[in-house]
Specification:
Number of helices: 0
Number of strands: 14
Order of helices and strands: EEEEEEEEEEEEEE
Radius of gyration: 18 Å
Helix content: under 10%
Shape: globular
Distance between the termini: 26 Å
Length: about 170
């Protein structure tokens, strides 16, 4: 999907699935636009691999390269390493598992305190089973999620992420 005015042509010149040797089942989409190339990576095993010009150890990554191959934007979710050229980001852990005692409405009530550093403006996410949620608030032993009811589960995983954006 590329939002554009229907009176103009699509900004996307091409999109292709990259073939990666020993990919471990990872999928990599390369999207070429007039002024940049975007790489979208999904790798369920989080193993470190090279995906075209990008090296990643994580479940999801995004890198946008300018025509001169400098990084414009980069995003890593549920991973520990993402690099492309001279740009490198790392996180100490991919995710943090927390035991759930009960669920009510859009809230998960935990067996322990929420780790420090979570806030509504941090764009933090969690997985409950295979269902992903954006975190609305996290205080004490409670995490409240946006938009949808929390599902019954024994554990949630807080997904660490990092977003980089470089301005010219």
């Amino acid at each position: 999907m590329a939002p554009y005015d229907s009176e103009n042509e699509s900004p996307i010149l091409s999109a292709r699935l990259l073939e990666i040797e020993d990919s471990g089942g990872a999928l990599v989409v390369e999207v070429k636009l007039a002024d940049r190339t975007d790489y979208i990576i999904s790798a369920l095993d989080r193993e470190e691999r090279e995906y075209g010009p990008v090296t990643m150890a994580g479940q999801f990554g995004f890198v946008s390269l300018a025509a001169d191959e400098t990084v414009l934007q980069a995003y890593l979710l549920d991973g520990t390493e993402l690099s492309c050229g001279v740009t490198q980001v790392s996180l100490p852990v991919a995710n943090v598992a927390l035991k759930v005692e009960s669920v009510s409405g859009r809230s998960f009530h935990l067996a322990e305190e929420v780790p420090t550093g979570l806030s509504a403006d941090s764009k933090a996410y969690l997985l409950a089973g295979t269902t992903g949620y954006e975190i609305e608030s996290a205080t004490g032993k409670t995490i409240t999620v946006r938009d949808y009811p929390a599902i019954e589960c024994d554990e949630v995983r807080l997904l660490n992420s990092v977003w980089l954006e470089f301005r010219e």
